[in-house]
């Protein structure tokens, strides 16, 4: 996830660019933006695969050096296998970013769904039936992403009229547009790298708390993320909508739609968390936790319930409107500053040093959402966020 977030950000940069060009009715230029987005994503995937392929031994030893030799052998094999799939995954992400930019989120869903269903089916064959273990997982992963990349090419071809896309436009790299797309996506990529880097550091702190804390955190995170699915989707959908509004210079609608999406996100949390609370006992049993950690899991989740309603949408949905308007540099600076100055330091102080454990981690995370949210609300209330012209 740490590495994939980098070329996913190229797709997001393409979404912002395409949405603004589409909103400004500059349809003839869309093909060139698609060119920059897709080639930019694939080039990023290739570079990441080569660099981290060369460094994989050192990286795995630094992160998991205490693991047994058998585990490390499988980890090295799996990492190299995943890296081989990156250019193809990047092709899919670049295509998805392009489709979202013109509002074709249904087609983006179809492409992602096809890739993941194929991965599941291939895993059933290679792991469950053929008992190929990690090698089987690598084969399934690569086959699903290779075939999905082929579907991505077909998806672009089937939308060539909407994108004003021709073979003449796509037969060679449009370096000017690629640089422009990469310039837009750099803040997103930096945010993904350093934000996920902070998460890795926090995970290492949780490891210091012992096995029960690791299990508690894993189960709480898995349960909590289910209520974040719909609000996360709202945040993704907001990017092309606001981008098109800004492209038309219709700022009144951009503000109105953003406020409505933030409100919908809060409503989704009310419904989602209420349902998860009602299903907590039978649902958590699926994870087979020990009786000793059940109260801690419940307390940790209850902390997240309150923080979701108060802070999550203004911290994660609202900034997508700013990014869609070209204000990605500001959102990146705020996110990184709050992550490293507040969350990382706070988790070390409260969870590790003061002994509040996983509930302390959850409380600090929620408060950090609040810090970011307040800053984003103030930015959104002003005028600077939509003054970065991309078109």
Question: Brief overview, please?
Answer:
The chain has about 400 residues and is mostly helical.
Number of strands: 0
Helix content: over 70%
Shape: globular
Query: Major sheet: size, sense and barrel closure?
Result: none
Radius of gyration, in angstroms, nearest whole number: 22 Å
Structural class: mainly alpha
Strand content: under 5%
Number of helices: 17
Mean pLDDT value: 90
Provide the succession of SSEs: HHHHHHHHHHHHHHHHH
Unreliable runs: none
Give the CA-CA distance, first to last residue.
31 Å
Give a structural overview.
With 391 residues, the protein is mainly α. It has 17 helices and no strands. It has helices at 4-23, 30-54, 56-64, 69-101, 105-129, 133-158, 160-163, 167-170, 175-208, 211-227, 229-247, 251-278, 280-285, 294-316, 318-324, 328-353, 357-381. α4 runs antiparallel to α5, α9 runs parallel beside α16 and α11 packs parallel to α15 (318-324).
